[in-house]
Amino acid sequence: MNSLLDQLITWRRHLHQNPELSFQEYETQAYLWQQLERLDGIYLRKAANTGIIADLITDTAGPWIALRADMDALPMEETPERPYRSLYNGRMHACGHDAHMAILLGAIYLLYQQRAHWKGGIRCIFQPGEEKAPGGASLLLQEGILQEVPIQGIWGLHVTPQLPVGQIGLRSGAFMAASDEFSLILQGRGGHAAYPHLSRDLIAIGASLIMELQMVVSRAADPRSPTVLSFGQFQAGTAANIFPTQAHLRGTLRTFDEKWRQDARALIQRIVSHTATAWEIEAELTFLPGYPVLQNDPTLTALTRRWVVELLGEASTLEMPLWLGSEDFAFYSHVVPACFMRLGTGGEHPHTRLPVHTPAFDIDERGLEIGARLFAHIALRALAHFQAS
């Protein structure tokens, strides 16, 4: 094999050029399988249709730990001309999952080379569909991937342009928000724009609802519990002088408290229902339950911090604030002790410091080797820790 970084870049760029959307990762699965089956004695199987479970085992009695990488890309057009630009219009790895897969592959190769020096089992999870509810993690849990062997801890990471290469962000306890998508369909009498009194102006009603529902955050939420209500879509109308008969709004609700999450959903429903009654329209509100709060196990996070410092030095770790983004890794964190890390990938090129989910997003690829070595180091230290405890 070439140097580790060269191989990681090769893997990452191939995956970047060939992005696939959530639950459609068939070619991605085939490519990963091809790289993994080169290792004699690794146990491979498909999971959640397009995912892969790869087990490295030196002792079936354990201990057992798990490492996870997500696989799916986003429905976005990549704008910059790069040697490794996406080959497919409207599909892009704009969230770094190409890097996550390459990093886990690299960690597997490192751990395979050192298999004479560790004891136990390492379950490596290539998970589809992180970007789309219900999330691939929930499907894999239904298949029992964390229950069929006694997993004592699971780790994941995410590329983070806000952090420079070489820094690892950690936070104990609640880390990333619960997220629920919702869809609101308004229906009423359409008509000529010159005669609003004879119709129901669904665009004005929808706009009013957007503003009124923000009071759920500003006046009903405990200010000490972060809450974000955002609308990403408002579709209505066919012409400037016609009141439409239907309007469709879509958005997300992000919270950090499970009781408030349910209360906020109920309050949103009441406001929508009362508005529909007042204006004599029909309103159909549907929540698509998303991901729970991501909880980093305090003990596992403290151990992880120690192991990060051991590998990368005292200045490598950073205490992260609450993160309002959501991650379906959160499902795992409610089943076994979990630790989710932020991997610094910000570099000198301005594209490496752009936010995820933007069309010019990129990473400083030096972060790939740090991520792979970190995953492998944590796995070795965790197995030794659980063996001794």
What does this structure look like?
It is built from nine helices and 16 strands. The protein is elongated. It starts with a helix and ends with a helix. It folds into two domains: 4-177 and 293-388, Aminopeptidase (3-Layer(aba) Sandwich); 179-291, Alpha-Beta Plaits, CATH 3.30.70.360. The chain is an alpha/beta fold. The chain has helices spanning 4-17, 26-36, 97-113, 136-142, 202-220, 258-279, 298-312, 329-333, 366-388, and strands at 43-47, 51-57, 64-70, 121-127, 151-164, 168-170, 173-176, 178-187, 191-192, 228-236, 242-243, 246-255, 282-291, 294-296, 317-319, 338-346. The strands form four sheets. It has an eight-stranded mixed beta sheet with strand order 1-2-4-3-5-16-6-15, sandwiched between helices. It has a four-stranded antiparallel beta sheet with strand order 10-12-8-13. The model has no long low-confidence stretch (mean pLDDT 97). Helices cover 34% and strands 27% of the residues.
